[in-house]
Amino acid sequence: MKIQKMVSLDQATALIASDMKNFSRWVRDGLHAQSMGVDLASEHALRVRWVGVARHLAATLIEYAKEMDSEYDSTVDEILATALQQTKLEEFE
């Protein structure tokens, strides 16, 4: 469920926000960082680290799948691309 909140911007910050791909996500990330007592740069570094962990886990799972089925040929990038296209819980396989 999305909850609408308003943010007041001046002309300069409105111009900056209009150039951002996803301003709402940036605000949410900032609020999460604030709640954990870290700055946005630290929050971003944590997210990058978790992406690396997720890629490593996916690579390990693919390696295990290939041991079980020698014909398995999906790559980490293919699996991640598929996952990123799935937006509803029902779409995940």
Kindly describe this structure.
This protein is mainly alpha-helical and 93 residues long. The protein has 2 domains: 1-37, no CATH class; 39-93. It has 4 helices and no strands. The chain is elongated, with a radius of gyration of 19 Å. The two termini are 23 Å apart. The relative contact order is 0.06.
Chart the SSEs and their pairings:
Elements (H helix, E strand, L loop, with lengths): L10 H8 L4 H14 L3 H29 L7 H10 L8
Can I get a quick summary?
The chain is mostly helical and 93 residues long. It has four helices and no strands.
Number of helices: 4
Q: What share of residues are in beta strands?
A: under 5%
Q: Which bin fits the share of residues in helices? A: 55-70%
The number of distinct β-strands equals 0
What is the mean pLDDT?
84
Radius of gyration: 19 Å
Largest sheet: none
Shape: elongated
Order of helices and strands: HHHH
Coarse structural class? mainly alpha
What is the distance, rounded to the nearest whole angstrom, between the alpha carbons of the first and last residues? 23 Å
Domain module tally: 2
Low-confidence stretches: none
Entry keywords:
mainly alpha, 93 residues
